[in-house]
What does this fold into?
Amino acid sequence: MTTSGWNRIPRVEHAAHSAPAFRPDRLPDGPLLAHGMGRSYGDCCLNAGGHLLHTRGLDRFVEFDPATGILTTEAGVTLDELLELSVPRGWFPPVVPGTRFVTLGGAVANDVHGKNHHVAGSFGAHVKRLTLHRSDAGRVEVSPEHNPRWFAATIGGLGLTGLIETVTLQLVPVSSAWMSVWSERFHSLDDFWALDARARREWPYTVAWIDCLADGRRHPPGRGIYSAGRHAVTPPPRARFREPRRRVPVDPPFSLVNGPGLRAFNELYFHQPLRRSPHPAHHRGWLFPLDGIRDWNRIYGRRGFYQYQCVLPERTARDAVAELLRQIARSGQGSFLAVLKTFGRQSPAGMLSFPRPGTTLALDFPDRGAATHALFERLDRVVREAHGALYPAKDARMSGAMFRAGFPEWIEFAKLTDPQFSSSFWRRVTA
Amino acid sequence: MNPLNNVVIFGATSAIASAVARRLASSGARLFCVARNPERLESLLADLRVRGDDAAGERIRGLAADPADPATHADAWAAAREHLGEVDAALLAWGSLPDPAACHDSVEATEEALRINGTSAVALLTRIAPDFEAQGHGVIGAIGSVAGDRGRQSNYVYGTAKGMLATFLQGLRHRLAPAGVDVVTIKPGFVRTPMTEGFNRAGALWAEPDRVAGGILRALRRGHAVAYVPWFWRIIMLIIRNFPDWLFRHLRL
It folds into this structure.
């Protein structure tokens, strides 16, 4: 049986699978890697030829203090399960990525970020404590106070520092499940930067969708929709929310994301009616729009797809984003999932954390073989020259040199990994 | 409809029973959980308390005892009654899939499997039935298996124990009906529990423990006699039970 991440590339065989229902007394022999929901896009959740430890059985809450909002859970609990528990009690995760179907262990290991990075930083910044199970040290508590080196290595550490068994997280108070949101069209990248500079001061959640097919011939490059939101103080009157329960039922033999359909989609999406004034939206629909469509990764067909997410430092971001969009538009590849977001200036929470001061651009690409890889090479050059980095959680193909340039602390990090833990990603980029 | 406000679960740390306990805790029920392993029980109780305990921490209690050992039953049942008062429902959910090959030539392994999955449950049912009868209401549910519906070469010892349990429950149902007590035989199909992780479980026959738990709670509330969860296993097992033997022998099910 093969296993793959959410993008279905690569698919690999493992020598063994196990799924502890409870925190294991001793770890099996390596090379080991924890695997939660498999929502990363590539091979950082895979361990070809090794032992994959499925963590979804570790799904118990351990302790919750409704007065302080400090929650301890086992690492296989998903954000979906956390939200179901905490929102009715008036608490919200401090940071959520674009899907709630990830485990907390995965959120720590990839130090995920969300639309509120410019105010809240990354997920790891809100982790108070972890229980780490190491082959060379047994079960250890790690936190900024105890074993701080292991703690800093484990935040964003891609699961390589041992098995994360429990996570203690500081939640933030909210007074309803609803948000107040607002969107506006922008017609060029200059518009985006101006809008962003203004909106990020006023709104805790911001993100922009960008039309990566607009190549400047028919449409100005860099047109898109800017969205911002905050938790609402009160739910709207007669508030009702039903999340759509759609599902992509089959694997089409080829990608449904292709040229003409995509152009039409982007055109319609860009021109969708937008309400100018802030209006209510349920947090599920607004923060997790794709979670309403189960198995959405199937639309790319059996071959799967790539995601390309980079971060560019502040001083190079403007030129580099423009150049990346030019390259993508010219190639005619790219997809409707193109997201632009400026990060805050917080220092990274972990040694290998991806979020850093600057701007991040994320795009999906159907796998068109050599043409797609050639485009990635061109994009890599732009990112390298701009002193940027690629996101390991979204990567299935970057070169070792690219990784090492983007994550210079990797040498120090490597000394803190668990000798029995490894991943396909790690072997690929450190080979 | 049977109320499910005061519930005791034996073998509460199994994936299916845990899912049932979670749903009950979230709905505000008083729970008493019995399981063999003290650490695992404690981690389950902590989880249930986060989900559903009151400020005083009174609703959720448990006892570490091996329900497969009938010697523990008297104390466990007494402790459950002390915590719950009237018992709306008792769920018997322990069991263990024996290694079929080990049973083929070992009397000990076979007897052990029969005790864990069959006679120990019969012993507990025998002990608690009079109290339900005297109380005059409530529901007793026990997790059987589709394996008990027809003996198959792959796991007939387990199937024998579960078949015995099903027949016993059938008789008990008959006996307790006049007292107003329901007895439910629960037969889960394929469930995505940690035990089966790493298998190819993408097919439509596989269900999440939480879905199975929902089916179990519905059956307990309504007092169904035999509940296949999910429901379509009733049809599958109807076919398997009625498959002609001369053809069945040629299958390696």
Q: What stands out?
A: The radius of gyration of chain B is 18 Å. The domain at 6-248 of chain B is CATH 3.40.50.720 (Rossmann fold).
